[in-house]
Amino acid sequence: MNLARNWRLKKERYLLEGAHCEGCGKVLFPTRPVCPACRSRALSPYQFSGRGEVYSFSTVYQAPEGFEAYVPYTVALVRLEEGPLVTAQLSDVDPGEVQIGMPVEMVTRKLREYGEAGLLVYGYKFRPALWQPTNGYKAEEALVDTVPEYQVAQRSTVSV
After folding, report:
1. By three-state DSSP, how is residue 126 classified?
2. What is the DSSP letter of 96?
């Protein structure tokens, strides 16, 4: 990893900026030179909200070189509100508390450090959301609509 590459990725890593295809309307993350859906090159910058939910996750106990200090940590696929899936480390949460469907939001955190006096690399991670769904639901009711396993568990506990 070099300084020039980190500078080029600054908007993606700090602002969660992707692209919007003018041809088909699809939003892309990360930015690509060509839309994979319609092959259009007419792409404009798109600022994602940074809000989403955990789609899938895994906890890392044996980290690759350079990440040993962070073990254990959780890496998740996060489905952004706008649609794309993003792979990111989860922050500010115990690995045992992570659940599929959990609302999360993007935060900027240190990703890595190169050498003792080297380059500090910052970028996006996701933490449990401090916001609540705006559709009037409580967090538990929002899960019922989004997580199939939760729907089955809730139906079996309802008494008539």
Report:
1. strand
2. G
